[in-house]
Amino acid sequence: MLGVKSFLIDSGIEEFPNVEAKDIRAAMPILAKHDVPYLIHAELDCGGFNEVVINEKYNSFLASRPKKWENDAISLMVEMARESKAKGDNCKVHIVHLSSDEALATIAQAKQEGLRFTAETCPHYLTIASENIPDGKTLFKCCPPIRDNQNREHLWQAITDGRLDFIVSDHSPCTPELKHIDTGDIEKAWGGISALQFGLPLIWTEAKERGFSLVDITRLMSRETAKFAGLDQIKGQISLGFHADFLVFDPNTSYEITNAMIKHRHNITPYAGRMVTGQVLHTFVRGHHVYQQDQFNNVPIGKPLLKGQF
Ligand SMILES: [Zn+2]
Predict the structure, then answer these.
(1) CA distance 257 to 275
(2) CATH number, domain at 165?
(3) Range of the domain at 137
(4) Is residue 130 a part of any domain in this protein?
(5) CA of 5 to the centre of ligand 1 (A)
(6) What are φ and ψ of residue 284, in 5° steps?
(7) Which terminus, N or C, of the chain has the lesser number of Cβ atoms within 10 Å?
(8) How many Å lie between the centroid of ligand 1 and the Cα of residue 257?
(9) How many other CB atoms sit within 10 Å of the CB of residue 240?
(10) With a threshold of 0.85, does the pTM exceed it?
(11) Is 271 helix (H, G, I), strand (E, B) or coil?
(12) Is residue 302 in a domain?
C-alpha cells in the first residue's frame, strides 16, 4: 500500500463514510509506523450552505462548497500533524486536489514548522476559471469546485514557489449517465473531471507562457509524484536501473481537443473545443513501445505497484 485516503466530508458513497478528528488520531500512528502518507480530501462541512439550490447553475454549485470548507479542513489537518509530531509519530499528511487559494498560507506555515505536510493541485484548477463555465455543463463539476480566475492565478504562484508540491490528474472515469449530461443537473451529477489524456498538453500550454521549461514539468508531473509515492528508486527519472517509462513530446504543435480524440473508456471531457499546444507522439512503458501517432501497439502491460514489491 502506497497511501491511504480519507474524506473529511460525506464522500457521496455509502460504503466510504467521512472521518473525524478521533479517527484521524487513531489512524496516524499506524500510518506513521509503516511510513505511508495520509491523503486527505480536505472539505469540512461547517454548515450554512446546505440550503443552496443548485439545479443547473454553476455559480450556485460554487457557492454551496465555499473556500472556508477547504480552509477549515486544512487547518484541522495541520493541527493533527502537529499533534502527531509532538507524539513522535510525525505522520505524513498530504492534501489531495487543492482548490482554495486561501489555504495556501496554512500549508506554507505547516512546511515552515517542519511538519511532513504536502499538497497537490490538478490541471482543471490550473486551466479553468469559473467565470468561463457555462450553466448546465455538468462535465465541469468536481469537489472541491473549480473557482474564479484570481484563485487560479494564486495556485500558479504556489506551484512556482513550492507551496504546492506537484500536479496530478485526479482523473474521473465516470459514465456519461452518472454525469447527467442530458439534463444539465449539476446537483445530481457525479463530481470529477475526465481529462487524463490531456493533462500534459493542458499544463504545458499554460506553463510555457509562465516561463516553465519541460524540465520543470517533468519535476512537477513525474519526479515529485514518484518520490511522494515511494517509487523514486524505479520511476521519475532517466537513470541506470530505472524503468524506461518515456514519452516523445512535440512541444510546438497546436490543435483543438475533440471528443473523437479521446482514448479513455468514456469519451467525455470538459475540454472539448479547447486549443492546446503540445502533443504526445510516442509512449514507452518499461522500455516497451506502447503508443505511437494515435495508435496503441500492444496489449496493456501495466502492473500493479505495491509497496516493496517493484
Ligand atoms: Zn477527493
Answers:
(1) 6
(2) 3.20.20.140
(3) 4-194
(4) yes
(5) 8
(6) -120, 135
(7) N
(8) 26
(9) 4
(10) yes
(11) coil
(12) no
Ligand 1 centre to CA of 233 (Å) is 27
6: CA distance to ligand 1 center in Å? 8
Q: How far is CA 191 from the centre of its chain?
A: 13
Question: What digits encode the pLDDT tens for the residues 183-197?
Answer: 888 988 999 999 999
Tell me the DSSP string of 28-60: HHHHHHTT--EEEE-----SS-TT---TT-HHH
Percent of the chain with pLDDT over 70: 98
> pLDDT of 3-29, one tens digit each?
999 999 988 888 889 999 999 999 999
User: Are the beta carbons of 290 and 297 closer than 8 angstroms?
Assistant: yes
Alpha carbon distance 245, 242 (integer Å): 9
Res 288 pLDDT > 90: yes
Residue 228 lies in a domain: no
Number of domains in the chain: 1
Query: Parallel, antiparallel, or unpaired for β 4-7 and 38-41?
Result: parallel
Report the separation in Å between the CA atom of 73 and the middle of ligand 1, taken as the mean of its atom positions: 13
